[in-house]
Specification:
Elements (H helix, E strand, L loop, with lengths): L1 E7 L4 E6 L5 E5 L2 E10 L1 H10 L6 E6 L7 H10 L3 E5 L9 E2 L8 E7 L5 E4 L6
Antiparallel strand pairs: 1-2, 1-5, 2-3, 4-5, 4-8, 6-7, 6-9, 8-9
Length: 129
Amino acid sequence: MNVDVYRNLKLGNWSIRNRSTGTVAYHSDFVIVQDVTFVVQPAGRAKVLRDKTKNVHAFVRGTIGAYYNDPQFADFIMRKSRWAEKVFYNPYKTDHFCFSHKEEEIKKAAYVILTERGGAWAIGDDIVC
């Protein structure tokens, strides 16, 4: 399924929006997304900066499959990959998703693991910056 996944601040988990229907199909504490593009919508970010109120304007876009909420599969991916890096997005600091230790933009990743505490880990040997 092609999805957009974003942090649901009210529920404290991840919302998984089906791109075909535009509706939220699931909520989950843990999600694995494949063939990921990191998306920030400029108009939504501008509204956050102007009004100081949060809205859904940044998300991880990709596909999910049968193992989308399987921590054991995530461990397998992490062990198999040579590269894993924590990423974040803060509309008050940057206009893009970044690596957690620097403000370098990240655009694509083979996998992203979204954890129950709100962490996001880009996984893969072909990260696009």
